[in-house]
Amino acid sequence: MSAVALEQASGGDDATHSGSSWYEASARQRLDGLLDADSFAEFIGPEQRVTSPHLPLFNLPEQFDDGMIVGRGRLDGRPVLVAAQEGRFMGGAFGEVHGAKLTGLLRAARDIGSMPVLILFDTGGVRLQEANAGELAIAEIIRALLEARAAGVPVVGLIGGRAGCFGGGGLIAGCCSALAVSEQGRISVSGPEVIETNRGVEEFDSKDRALVWRTMGGKHRRLIGGAEVYADDSMASFRDAAGFLLKHAPAFGAATLEAEQSRLEQRIERFGACKDAVDVWRILGAAEPQTIPELPDQEFLALAAQLQEPRHDAR
């Protein structure tokens, strides 16, 4: 089954009501819906109370897992390592402990060499209260992720939570073997408020929610090759997407990097003058690009199959 066939089989208005909502679920509920029943075993579990050493200094509440759940489980019988961010705790932001748990998981994947990794992103970026430690964590995670991929380990990201995937999380997602995103998922290095603060409202109006979603949301990311598979908001759709991408994630090497660099250079040439996502969609060939944000999933997937800017064979 191709990625397009997978999307069309699992997408559509009816599919969004089958199973729990990924967007509304907690990190632990997402893991429960994603993995085979009773297969998840957590590393550094709640009983160990490994929490941030920095938050108490600011009189901020801690959480027993520091907003990052790591462990192992099975997906369709296949052993996998998993990490899930809790977007309800500090917006899923990276801190020292939060990041170290993901780094450790990726290093374990590198050393094992035969167990793929699923990362359930839900993050606004780095915690301001742990800025230096959080930034260092991002660098360590990226290095560990690339080392795992160089060892032949597929690393697949799933994005559809409330916080989206911003800041350092967006950088990490860009280093993954492949991504699945829902319409509710947003991917960007800089968030809307950050862009407006630094460049002014004329550059980007963070209060224009339609602008935010069509620029950073899942539909746009799918069309420009920022994600391999578009999932609906159901657990079943993300589970199908994860299983597909684990089987079809591209190998990591010079050829993959060169092809991606070439694609990005072509994207700048083709879309560099565009002022809005609608302009990009028009260049891609959409007859009525302004209608794309309102399209039901099934209609969008049919259009995406015609307009998509290919990234690599996983799509």
Task: Considering the chains and any ligands shown, give keywords for the structure.
315 residues, 2-enoyl-CoA Hydratase, Chain A, domain 1, 12 helices, 9 strands, 13% strand, globular
Please provide a brief summary of the model.
The chain is of the alpha/beta class and 315 residues long.
Radius of gyration: 19 Å
Assigned CATH class: Alpha Beta
What are the low-pLDDT stretches, counting only 5+ consecutive residues below 50? 12-18
Strand order of the largest sheet: 1-2-3-4-5-7-9
Number of strands: 9
Order of helices and strands: HHEEEHEHEEHEEHHHEHHHH
Helices and strands in order, then pairings?
Blueprint: H1 3-10, H2 27-34, E1 41-43, E2 68-75, E3 78-85, H3 96-112, E4 117-121, H4 131-150, E5 155-159, E6 165-166, H5 168-175, E7 178-182, E8 187-188, H6 192-199, H7 209-216, H8 218-223, E9 229-231, H9 235-248, H10 254-271, H11 277-284, H12 297-307
Parallel strand pairs: 3-4, 4-5, 5-7, 6-8, 7-9
Antiparallel strand pairs: 1-2, 2-3
